[in-house]
Design a protein that fits this description.
By secondary structure, the chain is mostly helical. It contains seven helices and no strands. The chain is globular, with a radius of gyration of 19 Å.
């Protein structure tokens, strides 16, 4: 890999995603929903590649795998950007928070000797959540996010219209 830093890759990706997303009009929570749906969709496409190889004998090409991971990266960056805007945190800091939270979760779940099935099956979710909140190190880490407010309002409007 070139001498480009992770921060430079993130900054470049944010620029690309910002240019593409300018053409899509949706509220900020819609942007976050777009990111979540996109990640899910791309993960499904990655699984389709595996399914087609396992059950239909199709070849797996590295370029196809890289395409799907690249698409997942796009939606991952979009999600980071949405969190950044909602909480006023730099995208790079959100990225670092994601890494810290995941490290805290896995460090709490596994004793340090690597993956053990027994530890994976007998997780202490409360302990994991406390460790993730501490690792997040943000005052709003355990506060419900105001996501989907516009979707909830639309849903309430549709329900009230149905009651009339």
């Amino acid at each position: 890999m070139s001498e480009t830093t992770v921060k430079q890759h993130i900054e470049e990706s944010v620029g690309v995603v910002s240019r593409v997303e300018q053409a899509i009009v949706h509220p900020i929570d819609g942007q976050y929903l777009h990111a979540m749906m996109g990640m899910s969709d791309e993960a499904g496409e990655l699984m389709k590649i595996c399914k087609d190889a396992m059950f239909y004998g199709k070849e797996i090409r590295l370029v196809d795998i890289m395409e799907e991971y690249g698409d997942m990266w796009y939606f991952f960056i979009l999600g980071l950007m949405s969190i950044s805007r909602l909480h006023g945190i730099a995208v790079e800091e959100v990225f670092e928070m994601v890494l810290r939270v995941n490290k805290a979760k896995l460090g709490t779940r596994y004793s340090g000797s690597g993956y053990l099935k027994s530890e994976a099956l007998n997780r202490d979710k409360g302990r994991e959540i406390r460790a993730m909140i501490a690792a997040c190190d943000h005052p709003e880490a355990d506060v419900p996010m105001p996501l989907f407010d516009s979707l909830n309002k639309r849903s309430q409007t549709v329900q009230s219209q149905g009651d009339q």
